Structure formats: structure tokens, C-alpha cells
Amino acid sequence: MALKPYKTLIRRASDQFVVNKSRFIGYGCPCESEEAALAFLAEIRAKHRDATHNCYAYIIGPNMGVMRYSDDGEPGGTAGMPIIEVMKARGVTNCAVVVTRYFGGVLLGAGGLVRAYSQGAAAAVNACGVGVMHPTARYLIEIPYPLLSRVDYFLAAEPVIVEEKSFGAAVTYTLVVRAADEDGFIARLIDLSEGKLEPLRAEEVYLAWPEEAER
């Protein structure tokens, strides 16, 4: 099955705010498996053992196949559900969000809790940043020295990232190209070398690409 792009959190981060004396801390983390999400949750729970609540949600799988959430003692539907709804609205998967609450003595009511936990989830997602994981092909290309400068000039204008160069009888490049750009790039490379270069497709993986690579 061909891989498809998906959105996820770029980095692990947190943010916090106070509502009617209750302190809310939103944490977000990219997680590639349910085990990783649960490990992240356990870490935050251990860090905030004295918190009133550690409510969470996580979504796993490029197609969002696994969705879990918990109110952790808050009234039903006022914490975990608002968190996961924020995540779904942002379209992120393979990530987890935990919103920790330290009760400040003032009841917020059901509506207030929903707003606060929604704000906590949004704060976490914004702090982490959202990026796109693209299906990406990794290639090995052996380049004869007489073609090296020509190929380097060509690659500088192509939507590829050169990961490694190995010098021997020829120069072996390890590079990655988004699957969406793959066919065109390979065709142009072969045309440039008049069929002398034979790229070897090593694997297809998910990689986060910088925003300037979005075309």
C-alpha cells in the first residue's frame, strides 16, 4: 500500500495559563505508536503526581485509526473529548496531548471546563507546531567523477536532500525525494546523464520536510 502524507506535531513542547485560579499546562509530543503515547502520558503523570487532573488524548496512525482520550476524573465529556476534538480539527495524528490541571478553588462549570481544556490542547499544539510527514523515497546513486559537477549543479535546483556522499572509484550519493516528486526527478536525472546514471531505490519512509520544500 502506498504511503500517504499526514500532519503531526513537529516537536515536543508545552504552554500554560491560568483560569479562575486553576493552572492548566498543555503538553504535546509526536508519538509513532500507542506505546510511545502511553509512555509520554506516564511521564507527565509522574512529573505532576500532585496535580488535580492529567487529562489526555492521543491519535495514532496515518489514517487516524487509533483514538483514545480520558477525562481523568473531570465530569464526563469536559476534558478528554475537547482535547481530541482540537487535535482532529487541526488534522494531526501520531501524537499525544496531555492537559494538566491544578485546581485553584473556583469551580468552572461544565462549559468552563470544556473551554479551558480546549484552550490547553490548542496551546500545546501551537507550542509544538504542526508539520507534514511526506512519503519519501531514499535513493543510492553512483556518479562517475566526470559527471560530478554537472550532477551537483542539477541537484541544487531539484526538490531533493542529499544525506550523504561517499567517495571511492565513483561518488555514491544517498539522497531523499518526496514520493510526489519522485518520477519527475528520476526522469530528469536520467535525461541529464543520457542514461548513464542508474538510481537505486533503497526504501520508502516518512520524513518531515521543511516548509520551503512545499511546492
List the helices and strands and how they pair.
Blueprint lengths: L5 E4 L3 E7 L2 E9 L3 H14 L5 E8 L5 E5 L9 H11 L4 E8 L6 H20 L1 E14 L4 H9 L3 E8 L3 E8 H14 L7 E9 L7
Antiparallel strand pairs: 1-7, 2-3, 3-6, 4-5, 4-6, 7-9, 7-10, 8-9
Describe the structure.
The protein has 215 residues and is an alpha+beta fold. It folds into 2 domains: 6-128, Ribosomal Protein S5, domain 2 (2-Layer Sandwich), CATH 3.30.230.30; 133-213, 2-Layer Sandwich (Alpha-Beta Plaits), CATH 3.30.70. It contains 5 helices and 10 strands; from the N terminus they run βββαββαβαβαββαβ. It has helices at 34-47, 80-90, 109-128, 148-156, 179-192, and strands spanning 6-9, 13-19, 22-30, 53-60, 66-70, 95-102, 130-143, 160-167, 171-178, 200-208. The strands form 2 sheets. Strands 1, 7, 8, 9 and 10 form a 5-stranded antiparallel β-sheet that branches. A 5-stranded antiparallel β-sheet has the order 2-3-6-4-5, with helices on both faces. α2 packs across α3 (109-128). The protein is elongated and about 75 Å long.
Percent strand equals: 35-45%
Distance between the termini: 24 Å
- Average residue pLDDT: 93
Specify the helix fraction band: 25-40%
Number of domains: 2
Output the number of helix runs.
5
Radius of gyration: 23 Å
Full CATH superfamily name of the largest domain: Impact, N-terminal domain
Report the structural category. Answer: alpha+beta
Query: Total number of β-strand segments?
Result: 10
- Specify the overall morphology: elongated
- Order of helical and strand elements: EEEHEEHEHEHEEHE
